[in-house]
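Sharing in case it's useful to others searching the archive later.

Someone asked me privately for the predicted structure of Major facilitator superfamily (MFS) profile domain-containing protein, so I'm posting the question and my answer publicly. Question first, with the sequence:
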Amino acid sequence: MPPPPLERNRRWRGAEARDRSPNGSEASPYLRDTSRKIDLRLIPILGALYAISGIDRANLAVALLAGMGEELKFTEGSRYSIALLIFFVPYFIFEIPSNIILRRVGAARWLSFLSFGWGVSILGSGFARSWTVIVGIRILVGTFEAGFVPGCLCLISCWYDRYQVQKRISVFYAISLLAGGFGNILAYGAMKIHAGGFLGWRWIFIVEGLIPIALAPLGYWLIVDFPDKVHMSRLPFLTAEQVQITKDRLDSDRGDAQYIKVTRKTIFRVLRMWQIWVYSFQFMCAGIGVYAFAYFTPLILQGLGFNETKIYLLSAPPNIAAIPYAFGLSYIADKTKMRGPFVVLHAVVTLVGLMITAYTKQNAVRYFGIFLGTCGSNGNLPTILAWQANNIRGQDIRLVASGFQVAAGAIGGIYASTTFIEKQAPEYHGGIWATTAAQFALIASVALITIHHRRANKQADHSLVVLEGLEGFRYTY
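And my answer, the predicted structure tokens:
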């Protein structure tokens, strides 16, 4: 049984006092060292595996240009859009079930298994002989990748307090952006392989499928479990005292270091929380922008008249530029303990990028628009994820809510896949305006939830309500 709240707070205050500098002004090197060790062990491996999944999701556009479209007749009708869309059906369905399995099986076992599964599936794409086989494999990839992101986000949020988490999520996500930036270059190198009688596009899938297969065993040994489930034999980098201090810090911050089993009642409870629907809607709107630029930037660049080599090279810089943008603003957001204003800022940057991409005539200016759109949309993902994580309590609630939120992102992928249609190439005005509408809806949702948070916090300040079942808890806005 977990200690009562008073005892948990007393234990934390003792640990905090012991781990502060003599003047009591800041945490001691011991406490900072604990966070740094967790950072180095947890974030890089999760980010590396997520990065490969991001490359795998976006490699269809690259393969299409590399010869898959012609060989498998993907350019006929809406076959490309169908292949993009079908991925998100299982991706949506299996988010929450996967998070429930994650707790039962263990983070290291489950997340590394998912990585191995989608790696084998991607590898199989390299041997496909018809476009329908690619569609079937995309269903498998969507099934395996469905649980990875919400599982990682839930695991990260359970190791850090509320105003440490956005920086960590942004680093986790930045690793994916870095790999995504170089993913097209990797694909370009792979398509130059001429062996086994395969065209270059097949080697894109073969090479990119082998990477997660190779990383899966490493993930099994490096990924750490939830703080309440850790076995010290798997945590030689932390002492038992450091693990306990982490748990006490989480209890002091939000009182949910102890796991509560997910039940059917939990799922229905989360689905009745209207705020969760708002956060999920926000993630969907941000995801529309991310998927739009990830899937169609190579095709837009092709429409601008760039040759194959330049398309692959020019697809990388916007993703790389999004890394310092997202991390820098995430650092400021954690420092200021604000989320809503940054969501609006990212949405506005995305809007400007969309309009420049759609309506300017000069190629250089349109390319700059891709930079802005990629930075804004990608910067919003860690912000919105952290916002929900800040305002919910309980590991059972967190498991369901994170799965539901990321599942909503799958709807954003479906939306982007069906609004950017081949007959509108290369301008894609319909898709761009559909993405623009999503950004305006996102801004409106920020206004709605911020008004609610401010009103609820004022009521709690006057002792009229207790927020989220914890005395002293206040919503972040």
